[in-house]
Amino acid sequence: MDMIPYMYLRVTILSSLFLLTKLSSQHQTPGLFRIQPDKSNTRLDGFVYRTFEKMSPRLCFDKCIRRPKCYSFNYNRYILRCELNVKPQADATLDFYTENGYIYVEIEPYRRVSNYDPCIENLCQEGESCQSVSKGGNICIKDECNFQPPLTNIAVGKSTQQSSEFGGYPSSYAVDGDTKTLSITSEQYLPHWWVDLGDTFTITQIYIINRITCCGNRLRNLDISVGNSLDSMAVCVHYNGPGSDGEHHVFNLEKEVVGRYVKLQIIGTEYLQLTEVRVFGYPTEANFCK
After folding, report:
1. Same domain, 159 and 270
2. Is 94 helix (H, G, I), strand (E, B) or coil?
3. How confident is the model at residue 119 (pLDDT cuts 50, 70, 90)?
4. Average pLDDT score over the chain
5. Quick check: 263 and 193 in contact, CB under 8 A?
6. Looking at the domain assignment, is residue 204 inside a domain?
7. For position 160, what pLDDT does the model report?
8. Domain boundary residue among 111, 142, 173?
9. Residue 287 has what pLDDT?
10. Which H or E run contains 189?
11. Whether residue 222 is found in the same domain as residue 245
């Protein structure tokens, strides 16, 4: 009579051991790479300094952790794109935007951790990359120069004008870094706004935050132009719209454009209202290989 409980107990113990062994083997599978993203379906914008295509998430992590300059990375699992970010100068909360397929990972928690960081014993300097050598160990080499330099918002605080002013909302409010202010023109034909960057820059991205509290659909039929003077502007982006309240519009220029002035103009009769305009680029003559 005691054999039945004993057999039941023996089978239960064996089953439990089998399950634990299976789970343990899965957890310790060689090559398994699991990083918990800091943000999912989110991308940090404006701080990308280098991009790699057709890359696995493990290799993207490796590209970042080997470079002291890399603060975080964006990775898109659908198109296998790896984007390395420099450290933001200030609070970058507003520079995150939703984009399906992306994850955002900050690399600092993994530095100096043996399971993740291959370069613990050889600390490289910013601008260098830690590379493994065949005989073992690592060396620091100068990072390649064929990359996109760090991008900064070159419009903040710069001189601006607009075609008219409605209700005490001047053009300067669009570049003051404050999302609680905005610039508004009167309702008119071809309302426009422009910023003087103060020098010639290579422009790679233009970022517009639409009015947050009301009437975001007024942002439509918008031309964005760049040029070295207000008399010589070329349209590089056209946005059909209409927009929505508080929407963030990110325009990545397919071809880098050089210019000093950026102008926004609605084609038609409308108010032009802008919470923030950010222009990302870098000095045209800068040497980023030093």
Report:
1. yes
2. helix
3. confident
4. 82
5. yes
6. yes
7. 97
8. 142
9. 43
10. strand 188-189
11. yes
d(CA 121, CA 112): 9
Q: Looking at the structure, do residues 158 and 264 belong to the same domain, yes or no?
A: yes
Task: State residue 8's pLDDT score.
Answer: 46
- Do 135 and 161 lie in one domain? The reply is no
Q: What is the pLDDT of residue 31?
A: 40
pLDDT of residue 16: 42
Query: Are both 134 and 59 inside the same structural domain?
Result: yes
Query: Are residues 62 and 166 both part of a single domain?
Result: no
Distance of CA 44 to CAs 63, 133, 160, Å?
A: 17, 32, 27
Of 183, 130, 133, 135, which is closest to residue 155 (Cα–Cα)? 183
The pTM of the whole model exceeds 0.85:
no
How high is the pLDDT of residue 240? 94
**Confidence grade of residue 271 (pLDDT, cut at 50, 70, 90):** very high
Domain CATH for 85: 3.50.4.10
Name the band, by pLDDT with cuts 50, 70 and 90, for residue 91: low
CA–CA dist 47, 286 (Å, integer): 17
3-state SS assignment for residue 9: helix
User: Residue 200 corresponds to which tokens in the numbers above?
Assistant: 């010639």
Segments forming the whole domain that contains residue 64: 39-142
How many independent structural domains does the chain possess? 2
Cα separation of 259 and 206, whole Å? 13
Q: Identify the three-state secondary structure at position 141.
A: strand
User: Is 54 found in the same domain as 160?
Assistant: no
Contact of 205 with 250, CB cutoff 8 Å = yes
Average pLDDT over residues 116-127: 79
Q: Find, among 42, 69, 83, the residue nearest to 288 by Cα.
A: 69
For residues 15 and 74, give the distance between their C-alpha atoms in angstroms, rounded to a whole number: 42
Residues 54 and 114 in one domain: yes
Residue 290, in any domain of the structure: no
| CA dist., res. 274 & res. 195, Å (int) | 13
